[in-house]
Amino acid sequence: MTTTEKRRTRESSEFANHTKAAARAAFRQWKSLLPDDFWHYGREARRESVLALRSAVNYLIDRLDPAPADAPPKPRTTRKAKVKVE
Known about the structure:
The chain contains 2 helices and no strands. The protein is mainly α. The chain is elongated and about 75 Å long.
């Protein structure tokens, strides 16, 4: 590796580190502007969306490979806790 290539690698690494630090600082600033409940409900909403997607995928899988008529029904997936929304 030549001296120029080493310098470019070091400079790009410094730039990447600076960019990551700036992104983290910007995220912390946005996070401080919004209440903790916002982030909590956002996580719960993402979780519910994934559960809905999983339900749709399971339905499609069941349609592809139907169970025998004498097989017991599969238990339904339920969520663990309800989220209170004020």
